[in-house]
């Protein structure tokens, strides 16, 4: 996404604070353990629920929704970085995931 800072899954710092903006069913199927979940449509109304971080790393399934969220949050003065490739890249890199039900994770 043009003008939005982006980082690859491989370059994410170990202490990165992640915001997952996917829908509830996507989150339940598989997410990064420790990430905060706020669906994209709820982000403007739930700014107070966002974790304090500088920067805040934003994820979705492929990087499109998270890019829009990062652009909007940056416009609000919240330092945000899009995680390129999102959960698809995370899974491809073999990074650990959790599922809400404890069942096998799905992206």
Automatic annotation (TrEMBL):
Recorded hits in InterPro entries, A to Z, give: GlpE_sulfurtransferase (IPR050229), Rhodanese-like_dom (IPR001763), Rhodanese-like_dom_sf (IPR036873)
- Any one Pfam family here would be Rhodanese
* Origin species: Angustibacter luteus
The record's section on Gene3D superfamilies has: Rhodanese-like domain
PANTHER family (alphabetical): FAD-DEPENDENT OXIDOREDUCTASE, PYRIDINE NUCLEOTIDE-DISULPHIDE OXIDOREDUCTASE
Chain ranges of the Rhodanese domain: 12-99
**UniProt cross-references to CDD domains, sorted A to Z:** RHOD (cd00158)
Q: Give the protein name, as stated in the record.
A: Rhodanese-like domain-containing protein
